[in-house]
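Subgroup meeting minutes
Present: P.N., E.W., G.H.
Scribe: E.W.

1. P.N. recapped why we're keeping a running log of single-chain structure predictions: easier to compare across weeks, and new members can see raw inputs and outputs side by side.
2. G.H. added today's entry (183 aa).
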Amino acid sequence: MKRTIIFTIALFTSLFGFISCGSVPQQTEKPVEKTETKIEKQHTDEEYKRSIGEIAEVSKEEFIQDKTEIINIIKELQKIMDKQDYQAWLPYISRNSIQYYSSPVNIRKANKRLPDKTIVLRGLEDYFKYIFIPSRKQSKVDEIRYINKSEVKAVQVLPNNSTVVYYNFIREDGKWKVNIPTL
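Output recorded in log:
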């Protein structure tokens, strides 16, 4: 009798366990088209068109690669400017810019154009400290604009869709370098 009761309890427990372990059919979610991805792609396409303008020889892949490279250079330059590290800045500057602003004649031209006459530039290092850094402090580059395949402007797009140019880049020896405008 004891065995029959134990057997019956074990049987009901087992049956209850099997019944309660039954799985509920899961509902599969239909893939939802991500609106964000669509908007992001549309934004990228519009930016690409704005960036290349009439220059047909720049592919979308080149544009994405160039923009990524330039934005990364700007981030590095920001760190260099925060430290005011002139020597670390030089490798990012085009040879023509270094040559131009190393000339005493051109530094005198730059001095004459300074609104603050208490600042006197004596060379390229002073240009870096007193002109380059202050004019780009707190800048935010959003997009690039191609002048041609090897020259690009890094710009901030304002709410009214006008742009502020913070950097000019030129491709030199396969790398993007800052090209400081001449006077």
